């Protein structure tokens, strides 16, 4: 077996990759035909591929590299921690300093009485924890039948059996026997695609009231919790109308339903505050965290839990945990990441400077003939591609055909922008400078122009009837 180095020709790396490496959310045969893009290094907001091309990472990896690439401090901390204590668990009456310090820091940053952290290795595991935790909570209160979790279609909460069931991705539910029992889905607050003739405000209220209707239909004594992302990320950066969240909060309060806010993307500065719940004025009982917690430098996530929920389940043994819950290296790296976010004022700069500037430029793309709505909260943004803005039309081609063409034009212009169906989304590192915002927008506009030209050439600028 040859050593795999950056000096191996790209084609050889691609051949080895397709021979032995199975990729997530990928059609293997298609990838073999095209060859994967091999990323070899990264610094700041730029990736470098095996051909030496520099690419602006408009997605911060997978929504996670909040402090940007190449921060030596995190590497130093990881090396130090590996030498001192590379691993120990937190089961059976043991603990260690990195997990203690990180849990304390998260409790300090988290809003309200969210003062307790149950660690996992990522968001999927943390949401699996949440399913078991809310059911255990109600059982401990003498209500074992209060075990249904309500979620939303087109939500993303992870890819394990439990978290994939919580999510509302139809393509995922179609494979592997999902969802598990006692998960119920209501519709999402996507006004552009589903709002019909309603105003956004009317539509936001109507979609929130689906939660109330579901609680009444299923029975208040059966519903344990509602889970949602503050802004749907993988679903297409869908920002609910302003009327939506206050009504959701009112309904959860009225029927005593636990509110789980999945902050895996929105947490740690993405929306211009430490948590999306603060930006949108939501009061969670549990928050799911991962991604930006370590800026992706180490796999770590968790559930941040209120005093009331923690106190209630503390009375029994919670038969749950992961070998790597609170892993010392991951915890130490996450702590260093939070130190950098805080001491360098990155979250404040996002709120006061970078996000407003990006918003102005992003909304400027709305004058493009292909672009329908533009949405942005902090440093996560989307635009809807459409053949006809006035009627909010979808394309006649299969959903995602146009989005994929646009993504490929972005790639060709050395910009990573993702497509979700025919929506384009960005979620760049929070350290993006104003000059880098300009580069991102310029490349995005060029990609949109090229995409538009290609659609016209191929006769794809047609609206679905
Ligand atoms: C990515 C994501 C998850 C899953 O996290 P993993 O670390 O991939 O398991 C859960 N919820 C949301 C909102 C996410 O974006």
Side-by-side strand order of the widest sheet: 4-10-9-8-7-5-6
Look up the CATH topology of the largest domain.
Aspartate Aminotransferase, domain 2
The total domain count is 2
**What bound compounds does this protein have?**
pyridoxal-5'-phosphate
- Largest sheet geometry: 7 strands, mixed
Q: CA-to-CA gap between the ends?
A: 55 Å
Please give the radius of gyration in angstroms: 22 Å
- The CATH architecture of the largest domain comes to 3-Layer(aba) Sandwich
Helix count, DSSP H or I runs of 4 or more residues:
17
> What is the CATH level 1 assignment of the largest domain?
Alpha Beta
| Count of beta strands | 15
Mean of all residue-level pLDDT scores: 97
Helical fraction equals: 40-55%
Label the overall shape: globular
Class based on secondary structure composition and strand pairing:
alpha/beta
Cofactor: pyridoxal 5'-phosphate
Family: Belongs to the class-III pyridoxal-phosphate-dependent aminotransferase family.
Organism: Antarcticimicrobium sediminis
Protein name: Aspartate aminotransferase family protein
Outline the fold blueprint.
Blueprint: H1 10-20, H2 28-34, E1 39-43, E2 46-49, E3 54-57, H3 60-63, H4 72-84, H5 97-109, E4 114-120, H6 123-140, E5 148-152, H7 161-166, H8 170-173, E6 183-186, H9 191-194, H10 200-218, E7 223-228, H11 244-255, E8 258-262, H12 276-279, E9 286-289, E10 301-306, H13 307-313, H14 328-343, H15 346-364, E11 371-377, E12 380-385, H16 401-412, E13 415-416, E14 418-420, E15 423-426, H17 434-457
Parallel strand pairs: 3-13, 5-6, 5-7, 7-8, 8-9
Antiparallel strand pairs: 1-2, 2-3, 4-10, 9-10, 11-12, 12-15, 14-15
Helix pairs in contact: 4-14, 5-14, 10-11, 15-17, 16-17
This protein binds pyridoxal-5'-phosphate.
Pyridoxal-5'-phosphate binds next to helix 6.
Keywords: Aminotransferase, Pyridoxal phosphate, Transferase
Cofactor: pyridoxal 5'-phosphate
GO molecular function: pyridoxal phosphate binding; transaminase activity
């Amino acid at each position: 077996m040859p050593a795999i180095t950056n000096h191996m020709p790209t084609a050889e790396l691609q051949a080895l990759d397709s021979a032995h490496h199975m990729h997530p959310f990928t059609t293997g045969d298609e990838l073999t035909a095209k060859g994967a893009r091999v990323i070899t290094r990264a610094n700041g907001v730029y990736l470098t591929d095996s051909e030496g091309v520099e690419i602006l990472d408009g997605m911060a990896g997978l929504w996670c590299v909040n402090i940007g690439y190449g921060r030596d401090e995190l590497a130093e901390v990881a090396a130090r921690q590996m030498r001192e204590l590379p691993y120990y668990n937190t089961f059976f009456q043991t603990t260690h300093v990195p997990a203690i310090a990180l849990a304390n820091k998260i409790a300090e940053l988290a809003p309200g009485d969210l003062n307790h952290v149950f660690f996992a290795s990522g968001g999927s595991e943390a949401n699996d924890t949440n399913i078991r935790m809310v059911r255990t909570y109600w059982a401990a209160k003498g209500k074992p039948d209060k075990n249904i979790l309500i979620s939303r279609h087109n939500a993303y909460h992870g890819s394990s059996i439990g978290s994939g069931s919580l999510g509302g991705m139809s393509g995922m539910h179609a494979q592997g026997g999902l969802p598990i029992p006692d998960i119920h889905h209501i519709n999402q607050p996507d006004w552009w695609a589903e709002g019909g003739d309603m105003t956004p405000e009317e539509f936001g209220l109507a979609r929130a009231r689906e939660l109330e209707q579901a609680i009444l239909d299923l029975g208040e004594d059966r519903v344990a919790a509602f889970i949602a992302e503050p802004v749907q990320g993988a679903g297409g950066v869908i920002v609910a109308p302003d009327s939506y969240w206050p009504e959701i909060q009112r309904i959860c309060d009225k029927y005593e339903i636990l509110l789980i806010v999945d902050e895996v993307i929105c947490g740690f500065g993405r929306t211009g505050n430490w948590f999306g719940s603060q930006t949108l004025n939501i009061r969670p009982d549990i928050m799911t965290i991962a991604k930006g917690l370590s800026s992706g430098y180490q796999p770590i996530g968790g559930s941040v839990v209120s005093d009331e929920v923690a106190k209630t389940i503390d009375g029994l043994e919670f038969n749950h945990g992961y070998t790597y819950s609170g892993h010392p290296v991951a915890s130490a790296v996450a702590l260093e990441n939070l130190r950098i976010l805080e001491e360098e004022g990155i979250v404040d700069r996002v709120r006061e400077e970078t996000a407003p500037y990006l918003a102005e430029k992003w909304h400027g793309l709305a004058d493009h003939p292909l672009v329908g709505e533009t949405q942005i909260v902090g440093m996560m943004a989307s635009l809807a591609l459409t053949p006809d803005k006035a009627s909010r039309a979808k394309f006649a081609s299969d959903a995602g055909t146009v989005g994929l063409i646009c993504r490929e034009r972005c790639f060709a212009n050395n910009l990573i922008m993702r497509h979700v169906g025919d929506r384009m989304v960005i979620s760049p590192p929070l350290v993006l400078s104003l000059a880098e915002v300009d580069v991102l927008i310029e490349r995005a506009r060029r990609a949109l122009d090229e995409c538009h030209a290609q659609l016209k050439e191929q006769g794809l600028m047609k609206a679905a009837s």
